[in-house]
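RECORD TYPE: inverse folding
INPUT: structure tokens
STRUCTURE:
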């Protein structure tokens, strides 16, 4: 894949562009070493196609633009298997459609902010968990996925495999660094600690801050709407886009609950006592028998039912 030529930037300037506005960078020396060799930094950003993409996706998109400006080779991983394993949020039959929908959305977002998408590599994920499963403990895997995998009382094995796969994506994609939100930190730490144990090199990790709804001031909303306009136009003009959206997120079919037919309309007032012997078989059905007095004690009740009461 071709990368942006940036002969006008020094290694230090490239690093400043790569690390700018990030909340944290783990192992920055790895990045600086690659840049000092005057070769493109290989970096990937992954996303699991579950729910519909939202405006928060503009945050990583802007950083992808920075990476490309710094001459990085950027891979976008559409983590379809991860999406299925995340506590089965998305049924397997929908994951393929959602992965395609995400690709179309991401390309449209990048075009909206002026990023040349031909310089990106899109990869559909698959399982890479075999190697790490032999050396990572259940505790470490659960801890690593705590921020990104839905937590339940009895966690599924899929939730433990998820962080292992994300760690192994680094090796499979042949990158120098992985980029993600700060909520990915535990998975990044898991990768850094365990990949060298199975013969893979350690990677750098870059984390951007999470976007809070409180950050969306009125001025930001206007800017977002301007960015969303070309994305809406892409959607309206692309029949495949529309079709994929329908397949990825089909309309929910509301099932009407049938009202249970009530049997009988009789009513027995609470102040009226009806003894068991006064009720002939079939005179009261279960819904009509609101209150039937069979006595004030167990013995009295038995006597009445046996026909012995006076």
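DESIGNED SEQUENCE:
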């Amino acid at each position: 894949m071709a990368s942006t030529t940036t002969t006008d930037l020094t290694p230090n300037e490239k690093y400043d562009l790569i690390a700018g506005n990030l909340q944290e960078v783990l192992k920055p020396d790895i990045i600086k070493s690659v840049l000092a060799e005057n070769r493109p930094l290989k970096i990937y950003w992954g996303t699991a196609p579950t729910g519909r993409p939202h405006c928060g996706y503009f945050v990583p998109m802007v950083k992808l633009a920075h990476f490309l400006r710094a001459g990085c080779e950027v891979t976008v991983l559409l983590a379809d298997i991860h999406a299925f394993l995340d506590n089965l949020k998305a049924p397997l039959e929908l994951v393929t459609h959602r992965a395609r929908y995400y690709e179309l959305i991401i390309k449209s977002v990048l075009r909206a902010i002026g990023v040349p998408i031909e310089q990106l590599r899109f990869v559909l994920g698959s399982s890479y968990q075999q190697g790490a499963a032999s050396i990572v403990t259940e505790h470490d895997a659960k801890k690593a996925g705590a921020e990104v995998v839905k937590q339940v009382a009895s966690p599924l094995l899929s939730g433990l495999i998820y962080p292992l796969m994300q760690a192994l994506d680094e090796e499979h994609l042949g990158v120098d660094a992985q980029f993600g939100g700060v909520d990915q930190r535990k998975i990044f730490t898991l990768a850094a600690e365990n990949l060298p144990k199975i013969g893979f090199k350690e990677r750098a990790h870059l984390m951007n801050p999470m976007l809070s709804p409180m950050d969306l001031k009125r001025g930001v909303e206007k800017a977002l709407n301007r960015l969303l306009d070309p994305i809406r136009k892409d959607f309206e003009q692309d029949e495949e886009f529309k079709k994929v959206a329908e397949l990825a997120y089909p309309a929910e079919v509301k099932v009407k609950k049938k009202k249970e037919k009530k049997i009988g309309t009789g009513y027995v007032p609470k102040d009226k006592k009806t003894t068991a012997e006064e009720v002939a078989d079939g005179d009261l059905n279960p819904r009509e028998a609101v209150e039937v007095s069979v006595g004030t004690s167990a013995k009295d009740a038995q006597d009445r039912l046996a026909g012995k009461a006076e």
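NOTES: The radius of gyration is 31 Å.
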